[in-house]
Write a structure and sequence with these properties.
- By secondary structure, the protein is an alpha/beta fold.
- 34% of the residues lie in helices and 19% in strands.
- It is built from eight helices and six strands.
- It has a six-stranded parallel β-sheet.
- Helix 7 packs across helix 8.
């Protein structure tokens, strides 16, 4: 994935933007770009925090992603990896958690922010507005919300966060063979004709499968 995960010209034009939403299906490199930028900022002597969101009412155990990131980033003292076991309607202490850090990178962020209680929406907005750098990978839902097929995904994603955020659309799965990616895409494309899909299935239904991925 490190060989193939190069941003396209449109992505490169905005990857220097400090407030970004990374929008793409499973295996498209969102976490790779998040951690690469986090490392680059930490190497300049800045404190960085990688927040991995999870539904707190569902589990209090760290995900494999969180454990993997902790292991991979343990040699970077300026980077702190934290799992946020988010509970809707309660104070999740996000400002206190990140008070000493002005650069945050958020993975597994809930896409259905509008379904959260008003106080939880405001807590997230306050967090994202207060930081100098915020990159958010939208790849999770809190309430399993589904999307109508007519929704413009980029405009929809941008509407979730403050106005100074830009959207990077990453629509090529890079971590699976082309035959597998195409099979998943075709399956969800068929489902989208008869029902609304959650975010990741919708992104897979609209993904681009490059012809030069390994076929086997």
């Amino acid at each position: 994935i490190r060989i193939w995960a190069f941003p396209n010209p449109r992505q490169r034009a905005i990857f220097s933007w400090p407030k970004l939403i990374l929008l793409g299906p499973w295996g498209c490199g969102k976490t790779l770009f998040l951690t690469s930028e986090a490392i680059e900022i930490s190497n300049m002597g800045e404190k960085v925090m990688l927040l991995i969101f999870a539904r707190g009412t569902y589990s209090t155990k760290k995900s494999m992603l969180a454990l993997d990131m902790e292991e991979k980033l343990k040699d970077y003292p300026n980077i702190t990896v934290k799992t946020v076991f988010f509970i809707d309607g309660e104070d999740n202490n996000l400002m206190d958690l990140t008070q000493d850090c002005k650069h945050i990178f958020v993975d597994e962020m809930f896409a259905d922010i509008e379904a959260l209680e008003p106080e939880s929406q405001e807590e997230l907005r306050e967090l994202f507005s207060s930081k100098e750098t915020v990159w958010v990978a939208m790849s999770n839902t809190y309430y399993g919300s589904r999307l109508d097929g007519s929704v413009d995904l980029e405009a929809w994603a941008k509407s979730k966060l403050p106005d100074d955020f830009q959207v990077v659309r990453m629509d090529t799965p890079l971590r699976m063979p082309a035959t597998v990616a195409r099979s998943i895409k075709d399956s969800y494309s068929g489902m989208s004709k008869v029902t609304n899909l959650k975010l990741n299935p919708r992104l897979m239904a609209e993904c681009q499968v490059p012809s030069n991925l390994v076929e086997g």
